[in-house]
Amino acid sequence: MADVKALAEQLVGLTVKEVQELADVLKSEYGIEPAAAAVVVAADGGGGAAAVEEKTSFNVILKAAGASKLNVVKIVKDLTGLGLKEAKELVDGAPKPVKEGVNKAEAEDLKAKLTEAGADVEIQ
C-alpha cells in the first residue's frame, strides 16, 4: 500500500511536460492510450494543486424501462434512429447504453425525455 501511495504522490507532482512524456511512453511502449479525462496535471507546475481535465463526452445509460415500457421503446427508437425491433431489444436488455460520446447538453436532453417516459436513466 505504501508503494501505491508513493506512486500516486509522484504522479500528482508531475509537470504538464512530464505528463505528456508519460503518455507518450505508455502509448509507444505499452500500447496504452491514456484517456484525456483521466490525466491529472499540476495546475501550478507541480506546486500541489491538481486539476482534472473537464469531461466533455458522456454516455446515456438506460438502467430500466420502468412501468411504461412501450413509451420508452418509442422514445429510444426516435432518439437513436433504430428500428422498432432493435429499440425493443435495447430496452429489454437494460442496463445498456442508449447513446455514447454525446455532449453534456444532449445527454441531459436524452435523460429528460427518457425519464419523462418512465425510464430509469443515468449519465456517465
UniProtKB/TrEMBL annotation:
InterPro entries: Ribosomal_bL12 (IPR000206), Ribosomal_bL12_C (IPR013823), Ribosomal_bL12_C/ClpS-like (IPR014719), Ribosomal_bL12_oligo (IPR008932), Ribosomal_bL12_oligo_N_sf (IPR036235). Residues 5-51 form the Large ribosomal subunit protein bL12 oligomerization domain. The keyword Phosphoprotein does not apply. Keywords: Ribonucleoprotein, Ribosomal protein. One of its GO terms (molecular function) is structural constituent of ribosome. It holds the Pfam family Ribosomal_L12_N. CDD domains: Ribosomal_L7_L12. It comes from the Bacteria. One of its GO terms (cellular component) is cytosolic large ribosomal subunit. One of its GO terms (biological process) is translation. Residues 58-124 form the Large ribosomal subunit protein bL12 C-terminal domain. Belongs to the bacterial ribosomal protein bL12 family. Forms part of the ribosomal stalk which helps the ribosome interact with GTP-bound translation factors. Is thus essential for accurate translation. Homodimer. Part of the ribosomal stalk of the 50S ribosomal subunit. Forms a multimeric L10(L12)X complex, where L10 forms an elongated spine to which 2 to 4 L12 dimers bind in a sequential fashion. Binds GTP-bound translation factors. This is Large ribosomal subunit protein bL12.
